[in-house]
Design brief:
alpha/beta, TIM Barrel, 16% strand, 12 strands, two-stranded antiparallel ribbon, eight-stranded parallel barrel
Length: 356
Amino acid sequence: MTATSPRFGIWAVVHGSRGAYQHPDEPYDASWERNRDLVLAAEELGYDSTLIAQHTINPHIEDFDQLEAWSAAAAIAALTNRIEIIAAIKPYLYHPVVLAKMALGIENISRGRFALNLVNAWNRPELEKAGIGFAEHDDRYAYGREWISVVSRLIQGERLTYKGKHFDVRDYALRPASLYRKRPTIYVGGESEPARALVADHGDVWFINGQPVADVASLIADVAARPRTAAPLRFGLSAFVVARETSEQARAEHEHLLALAAKDAPMKAIQRQNTDPKVVMMQTMQKTPRVGTNGGTAAGLVGSYDEVAARISIFHAAGIELFMLQFQPFEAEMRRFAEEVIPRVRSAQAERAAQS
């Protein structure tokens, strides 16, 4: 069981909706202005973190708008005061020296609130059409392992000389280093064996895709048992929330969202064609009907306010510290969760602490 209090974050809407693309109350909008206002509202509502996914082109339909993650993260860092800002990064898109410099810049703009989320890419056209090439699954992880070994040492202020298969860095140091702590936090996504080995060796927090608690507990047990020289690994979970006054209302809304999401079948078919079939996330997401990305409602956060709060407590007891959440319509449901569910989670936690 994790000793820390649960933290709650939101997925930025970098490619529009995180649910059904044809929801009548959430028109497509991946603009900077919407994302800015969303994160500012989340901070005001008490959310702890935001995750800005990185895509150079929209992973669903290439002609749709797509927010650029790292410039947006820098701008959000300057506008916010408390919320953690996590920017995803695909190693093939940036040389590690350049990316490390960018990360330290945002770290100091945010006054020590920045984190990077290492993901090793699943959207084939994004790399192939740029002429970068799309390596095999395990080769991408081998590249990512070497890449993060360079980045992690540079962002903690080390003067680095490194010679590997992919990179040759000589007597390189970045200044200023973090002015607020040793280095920015490193999140790692992916659930394959190479991903698990990578996060055990180089990550601070492992992001797990939404799935039932028994599966999540098994994943945590596997990776937590692996040897580490750093501090104990922490764990985050992606989930799409449908919370209402009663469980019947929540189930009805979930069915409504599933019906709307079914209209996106042609778009999802394109996404499947563009995805490496070895990516575990995509295999997991095909198991049950769901709403949302990265597992979505498969995590089971669908029900009454009390039920959703109780399920969050069960995940927390299994080891999840950070819940990275999706909603639809995002702004209204994000507020509902902050006002109805988070206080229930906090209250139940306080009661348990008083009894222990």
